[in-house]
């Protein structure tokens, strides 16, 4: 459920409520810890809602998550997401060092 620019906390709660009755196995990905979606969803957790909440969402995380579901693999998508973070400057420096 994407959050549109003009939407706020009430919209996030409404979108969550719209899907919560359709599925009891909910995983929520948000981009930033401390951002509005993260804060709203964290509050819902504190109020007793039952879902998995992950922050730091990125494309490798989402692809790994979907792949794990489709292929029945372990759900280690959060580990794979961390592995996908690469400081390219260091990587290029390491390649240059090997060439010398």
UniProtKB/TrEMBL annotation:
**Keywords of the record:** Transferase
Q: Name the domain of life this protein comes from.
A: Bacteria
Q: Which residues form the PTS EIIA type-4 domain?
A: 1-85
Pfam families membership: EIIA-man
UniProt-listed SUPFAM superfamilies:
PTS system fructose IIA component-like
Q: Which InterPro entries match?
A: Bacterial_PTS_sugar_comp, PTS_EIIA_man-typ, PTS_EIIA_man-typ_sf
Q: Which PROSITE patterns match?
A: PTS_EIIA_TYPE_4 (PS51096)
PANTHER family with a match to the protein in the record: PTS PERMEASE-RELATED-RELATED, PTS SYSTEM MANNOSE-SPECIFIC EIIAB COMPONENT-RELATED
Full protein name: PTS EIIA type-4 domain-containing protein
Q: What is the organism lineage in this UniProt record? A: Bacteria, Bacillati, Bacillota, Bacilli, Bacillales
């Amino acid at each position: 459920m994407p959050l549109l620019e003009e939407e706020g906390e009430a919209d996030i709660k409404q979108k969550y409520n719209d899907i919560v009755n359709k599925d009891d196995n909910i995983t929520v990905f948000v981009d930033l810890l401390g951002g509005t979606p993260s804060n709203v969803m964290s509050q819902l957790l504190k109020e007793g809602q039952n879902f998995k909440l992950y922050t730091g969402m990125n494309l490798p995380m989402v692809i790994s998550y979907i792949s794990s579901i489709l292929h029945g693999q372990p759900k280690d998508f959060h580990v794979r997401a961390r592995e996908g973070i690469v400081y390219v400057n260091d990587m290029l420096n390491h390649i240059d060092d090997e060439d010398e």
